[in-house]
Amino acid sequence: MSPSPHPRQVSTQVRIDHHSAVHVASVAARGLARDCGLTGALPEKAAVLASELATNLDKHARDGVVYLQPLALGEGLDITAADRGPGMSELERCFADGYTTSGTLGAGLGAVRRIATDFTIRTQPGDGTVVSARLARPQDLTAARAPVGAVCLPLEGEDASGDACAVTETDTGRTAVVVDALGHGPPAADAARAAMTAFAHDPGRPLPVLMAALHRALRRTRGAAVALLRLSPGRLDYCGTGNVRLALVTSDRVRTGPSGPPGIVGFNMPEPTVHSLDLAPQETCVLHSDGIDPGWARHARPFLLRPHENRAMTTTDSRRFRAQADLRHAVRQLARTHRLPVDLRARLVVSVTAVAGSAFAAGGAVHLETSVRRADNGHPGLLAVVCRPLGHAGRPESAELPLPAELTEDGGAVWRVPLPPRPAGGGAAPGLLDTSPGSESEALEQELQQAMARADALAADHRRLKHELAETNSGVLALYVQLEERDERLRRAHGKTLRELEDALRPPPLDIDGLELAVHYAPAGTDAPTGGDLYDWFRLPDGTVHITVVDALGHGVTSTRSALNVTHAVRTLALEGHRLESIIARADEVMRPFDRDVMATVQLARITPATGELLLANGSHPPGLLVRASGGHEYLEVKGRGVGFPLPGSERLLRTTMEPGDLLVLYTDGLTESRRDPLEGEARLIRAARRHAGLPITDVPRAIAREMHTVILHPDDTLALALRLLPRQDSRERVTT
User: Fold this and answer.
1) Which DSSP symbol is given to 341?
2) What is the model's pTM?
3) What is the CATH number that goes with domain 152-313?
4) Four-residue CA torsion sign, 32, 34, 40, 44
5) pLDDT tens digits, residue range 105-143?
6) Would you identify the CATH topology of the domain 1-137?
């Protein structure tokens, strides 16, 4: 990747010393956004960001300045607003829409944070505020959030600058250059451009080779002081000539980095020398020309050193790794820097390495991004670690990682780890946290000791639990045998009770000359041996046989009670001599004062065995099926409404004659609606009844039910009652239940 090819290397500076400067900043931001390759609505968003930040400076701050410059990496714009006071004492409230101290709408900082791709703010009451709002294309989000920034300003009164800088990502690490050409004005700017062109040609070369290339490119110019910086995991390489300064900034101090020997690149450059330093996580490298007084590093104020109050992306670091050892070392150092417990540190190292393993095995690289969200009021923050394999890598399984992660669509993984609180006095809790610098081998030994201690504790727990389990098993086994014996006794008693209950619900067998009867009943579930389907038959004084089939609403014992009440009411009315077509309506009148909730369909049949005359009355019940011995069949439809229905009663009395050998099938809807389609069920019932009509009467209802219930989509209580009229010469008394 080459440096960002922006045509403007000089930052735009807008001093907010009058309210008209707000418009100037907005127009400049819009134009620079277009120069940086931003299209669509992004230039207008840049104008809004600059306008809001400049407005805040104009209304609330003193000595406010807005700096506009291209992003150091990727295509985008960096808008920075800085002032010398008064600062913000209630920062979080300043982000809330509607909060204002000057009577405005109060939408400034909240709107800026929502619009910006990356947002960072640092403020201190009495010192001032610095705000950075970056805007980038969607494909450049990672670059926009990278912890890299640059400002390049010409000498006061000049348009061209002899200072220039660039940052780029290469296979050898993140590489930066700062050039300070001799003098100022256009000739110095020409020298700076020549150095930038030479740097962009191949920035990944070894630093001495790159310095030699810059030396050759500057020979026809007035020359420059140059510093090259290369960052790799945990390491800094510096190579320079002249008075470009390097400082290393942490949250509590500034240390001075190596400096280049005297000389001029392009004229009398000495032999390039590389200086290497260990670089701690979250340590910031600052390269600057002599246009900035180096005294800032010797007397750095706490406002400069302390971490950002970043309410959008927090403090972020992003690196690329090609070696597993380097990645493991970087993650371990990160965990040690943030004082994670040793056990958690080991799990994080192993998990990140596992996610990156497939990429390294394929000869690829991984991208590691870390961010720290620092909480207010001294509370612990949150460490987020993102490992994203570059190229085509297998998707990891979060459950297989020692430290579970959130998996991303591109094959990466995210770990969010709460940071431990700082103990009183600044020390670490013994045996839990590690803050000592230590070597890699010492860290590995700590993790191994922690793992061994955990394994020993687990082994002790295992032995204890195994002993307790052995003692418990003997007691449980004896109890299990006792429970089995008790359950068997209960099952036998339960079965006996159910059989007695079923026998009690059945009407007594009939002894009828010229008729064969049989019935099959099955409840909806095995847990309830009874249901709402019930039948009754008895002989009237005139020699006719009365049959009642009832289907009460519901299942189980409650519906059985309702069905019994209806059946007994019908029997009483029939024995009193009421006409068959009036019995259903009269039964409803009898039941209403005692059971207002009962609802039941009713089928009534009355047959004269000597003549075969059949009478039918119906109340909302499925029609009976008559299968003729001659091969024909018909459903005996009678309209009516059942007990508990509006306007109960049979609308008419159906009268027909059964011939010897004819079969009548009376049933409940559980027989035909087991597949949720009554019409389909009635068609299947015709086929089943005709197929089994020649069987002995004891087998007919059971055979029909078995065929109808090969597939059950809607289980329901089922009753099937079969009646066959016998030829006179073969007639004999028979009834089967």
Assistant:
1) B
2) 0.46
3) 3.60.40.10
4) positive
5) 334 677 888 888 888 888 878 788 899 999 988 777 777
6) Heat Shock Protein 90 (3.30.565)
